[in-house]
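Posting for a labmate who doesn't have an account.
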Amino acid sequence: MTSPEEPATYGGWQRERGPYLGELSLGGLVTVAGAGLVAMLPVYTHAWAGEIVAVPVALLLLAAVYLRVYGLTAAEWAVLAVRFEVAVVRRQTMFFSGAFAPRRSDGSRRTDLPGVLARLEFLTVPTGAGREIGVVHDPLQGHYSAIMEVRYPGIALADTARVNARVSGWGGFLRGHCVEGGPIVRISVTDRSAPEDGTALMAWTTGHLDQGAPAAAHDLVTALAAEAAPAASTRRTYLTVTLAASRVRQDIRSSGGGTLGATAVLVRELLAMQGAIAAADLQVVATLTVGQIAEVIRTAYDPGEAPVLAAHAAAACAPGWAGTPPGVDESAAGPAAAEQHWGRYRHDSGVSASFEVYGWPEGRVYASVLTPLMSASGNARRSVSLTYECLGARTARATLSRERTKADVKRRVRARGGRIESLDERKALVDTQDQDHARTAGHGIARFTGVVTVTVDEPGELALATARLKRDAYTSGLRLRELYAAQDSGFAATLPLGLGLPVKRRAVI
């Protein structure tokens, strides 16, 4: 057990797999069976000349199943390419809004978002004392999400005991939601960093200089601020909590039913978790309103507008402000135009590339492992999203039991075949056992996934920004896989809207 004076290390993440038999999915198993049938058919029909055609076809089918590139089989790449080309032909990779946005019956424009975001609805929910918050409603999944902007003191300059306590507090916050059938189905953390032109830093420095200080001190402080300005960056961190209406039907009915009841239950959950959030040394700056949520979306699609909106928000906070309130109207949240390409996503004034965190560190790492990945580099903006799905005790037990059974069966099959067990296979079994021991000791088990998006102003700058991102990922011990043909969905996943884990279970436990 790690003492408070020793820095804690973390590890043992496992990639979630769902093979049908061995390492094969159901489709892969059918393909392998088809390859065997094609190869043996000429033998059974005594058409030996047919083997000239049957054997190459069988080998091609086997290659489609067993040949892997960037974690996907050749067959999966082929299906992905066909689906993408069909979408291109149908012009489904292009999105136009702005002046073309649809209107309501009263003539006003309604929210118009591309891709997987199109189904979302934005609700204004009163919380008492004249305050309101915004809630993102996903009618397809029956989810309601609230978004909080949070600040944290960080761990770079903290002592070891404080670092361990902060990470433990965050773990306690997640563990508190590992309840079977609990109302909170998903917790997302999104960190957005963007380069700063230094104007804010220079203005703050000028405004806080002591006019009575010596001229040499003035010159020194001004020079230091000017030197640090190009390296300055702004950071916003959002904590998104998602409630599943299907888990709290009775509470929703007792709170008025429908959307009203669901949002009332969500507000109660937000109030109940404030203590756990504070225990993790997180400070809730604000729970975002609909206008602020729209601004978060808008600045992601149109990063060139971010300085203007930031200046407007600062002016709106001044006493006696009589202009429009801060934020963006929800009808203007989405991009005016966007187009998805095979490996990039063009939207308004930005070009983005999104990556899935395909491999987490193999060994034990410190709590600061993600620091290189979460820092803006050059003129590129970065958005890192971690989404957690906390499992209840019964679900965690069944999941880990299934993983241990699979690993044990594979081990026995290899032993019967005379194959020596590799160290990676042995480590996977040990990690599963360690997780089961941790579960029985009272720890929580969570599925989680990570998505990273890098955004630049010009297409020619994307290659350098991507290379820097991958270098920082390797420094952290992470392996990234570009979300080819799904760049719009990857971009949406790094918005703090609670979209979360894919339905297909390919995340990490």
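Reply:
Got it, the structure tokens are right above this. Residues 147 and 362 are 32 Å apart (CA to CA).
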